Amino acid sequence: MSAAIKVGVIGLGTVGQGVVRLLKNNADEIARRVGRPLVVTHASVRDAGKARDCDLSGITTLADAMQLAREADVDLLVETVGGISPARELILAALARGKSVVTANKALIAEDGNRVFAAARASGASVAFEAAVAGGIPVIKAVREGLAGNRVERLAGIINGTCNYILTQMQENGTAFDDALRDAQRLGYAEADPTFDIEGMDSAHKLAILASIAFGTPLDYGSVAVEGITRVTPQDIQIAQVFGYRIKLLGIAKRSGKGSEQGIELRVHPTLVPDNTLLAKVDGVLNSVVVRGDAVGEVGFYGRGAGGDATASAVVADLIDLARGLGADARHAVPALAFQPDAVRALPIVPSAEVASAFYLRLKVADEPGVLSKLTAILASHDISVEAILQREPRGHEDANVALITSVIPQHRFDHAVNEMRALPFVREDAARFRVEKFD
Amino acid sequence: MSAAIKVGVIGLGTVGQGVVRLLKNNADEIARRVGRPLVVTHASVRDAGKARDCDLSGITTLADAMQLAREADVDLLVETVGGISPARELILAALARGKSVVTANKALIAEDGNRVFAAARASGASVAFEAAVAGGIPVIKAVREGLAGNRVERLAGIINGTCNYILTQMQENGTAFDDALRDAQRLGYAEADPTFDIEGMDSAHKLAILASIAFGTPLDYGSVAVEGITRVTPQDIQIAQVFGYRIKLLGIAKRSGKGSEQGIELRVHPTLVPDNTLLAKVDGVLNSVVVRGDAVGEVGFYGRGAGGDATASAVVADLIDLARGLGADARHAVPALAFQPDAVRALPIVPSAEVASAFYLRLKVADEPGVLSKLTAILASHDISVEAILQREPRGHEDANVALITSVIPQHRFDHAVNEMRALPFVREDAARFRVEKFD
Predict the structure, then answer these.
(1) Which residues contact A331 (CB under 8 A, 6 or more apart)?
(2) Average per-residue pLDDT in chain B?
(3) Which of residues 297-326 of B touch A (CB under 8 A)?
(4) I want to staple B267 with a disulfide (CB 3.0 to 4.6 A). Which of A323, A329, B94, B225 is the partner?
(5) Integer angstrom CA distances of residue A139 from B115, B137, B400
(6) Which domains does chain A have, with CATH numbers?
């Protein structure tokens, strides 16, 4: 057995501790895979006094993360600080001296990955980021390498465990959104400030990364159309169930159009998903990604999308890949974003108004004669078919609710129709509009 | 763009044609990934006059497969002949002259892979075989690389689409086994001689490969305990459903015992699976593999396990990996069986009699008083609990059926109890014995 490969871990939070634990617990098996041991020799910690759930014996701890990135005698670095800055500067410092880096930092990769990867290429080092999407599920490797023979037609994923936990609670117990969120916070599934998760930005970061490796397009987080789950109600979840659907927060990337008209859709939104699909059945904090390739058809992946150990699983897999590549000619490596950097080509982003799907609509209406006939007349005038409709008798003094699912239409046509409906005197509110995806 | 990478395809059956099609259809994207085009320049065909569903223009066809393997001016070879011989000799001939090979040949890898990989190492070439297990699902890569940080505790898979199709038909339509098999043959899902699929050998080949890369053990097809699906009846499927289970043919590899007592279970058999698990929901010709790692927890994969295009997807992914590695130092490559060859270590195989699980038992019994009391007394005397039991009133002159599910016990204890039951005068037949796996 040759000399150990020395690993520095920047940040000893949940993920950093998980990495230290995993490299110690499975040291023998990992050495049998790589041919050399992988040993954490350095770690940076902000608060040295804090109790940690890992054994730090044999590890030199530094208070200064930048010192670790710039100077420590290590072969590989793991960045688990998160956020854009100073994580970016730490990674760039490590790359500048030719050290390859593993990161779980989806925000940084999605928002400034193009710069990070260019810096890596300039120094002959690598940046690996399997842990940035869907935690322990090796979906980056699957899409980038395992499905590399395919032209990917679309992918869709439940890529935020917090939102999926909240929606599952709402589905199973009829809990209101706010209560389900508090429950998630109490269990540590949601942050004190949950905005990033529940407003869909975290999913959008992950989707931007997946889309880039699937389609060979540049990272383009800013083009993702994002809608979070704060407007989903138990009532809509329950009506969706009657229609044979479940409501999930999905990230969807899809090719659209043909030939020179070709573009891609990039969107994160609550989605009605048929209840007999795998995505509909993925509950709680689990993540799942389904990819459709022209040769392979539909391939699905599921597992834990977060948590120290699951994320550490992805970080250590990346470390093992990088350890094998130490000293190798970088030209033989898999490109970070699946395609050769000079072969990455932007495709037009389809504006949301043009993106076609079926739609779910729930209107609050006064309980009076002629309501349905006027609503359906408007839909017909926009050439929109009604695929499913539900109106139940209102209880007590409630308004009546009319819920329906349309045929597949571009959003602008749906919006025009809904705007006309809103102008009707008996329509109190358009209470919910969500996309429906059948994945057929 | 540099010079094209030349690929030779040995055998132009369903998979070979799929590979030719895919490399042509997606030529531009594949070149953008690799940095060089991948072009099929040679193919061997037994019957040159046969119509094929792919464009052979620009491809030199040879009648002699061995000539292609030994002499053709190619960079990489694809073997799609199948079976042990002459596939093995063709691959060894290609490796002998330093050409790396992609194969979908599970029988060869499972039964003689150790020799094939040794030949590859001796010549500095590689053998890639993603397509050998679960068709288009990149499960080899996932287990070997994506989950490499984990100590794998167990894996279980539906890895034969023919059997899953037959069992699904039996489940959904109450079809008898023979009729479902004929149906599968008519649709091309089963061979004219279906023995290999329905008797479980095909699943055993795939399981042996998965187990080796998961545990770092040598390939050991001969040690897989195999039972096919021919004894599964619609009646057992229906009773299992009442108990909350579905019957699936699973390949299961599992660590068992602790410390020096450690061994592995390798088994293929019809299994009662709780109906709320992913495996229970994978129907028709689809495949699915679920892996449990110590860090990642449960990770699942599903997709098409067979068919020309899905299998070609895996073959081309391997070709892309090998194309990237052309000219690279082989010491940096991922070992074929995940672990360094000198670090592969055999673990004792747990004999079937010692393998513990819950069991499903159905007995045909005469309809007379005291039956249940005598049966349950025998179970109690062997310290076996009854977790579920069903007896329905017999119709007409039928024997009565008693079906039950036991607690988790080693098979020898179950067998002893069943043997005692068989000796009872009112027991006509032990009509079905299957293992139950709860995956908790």
Answers:
(1) none
(2) 95
(3) 297-304, 309-310, 312-317, 319-321, 324-325
(4) B225
(5) 32, 12, 51
(6) 5-128 (3.40.50.720), 139-306 (3.30.360.10), 354-436 (3.30.70.260)
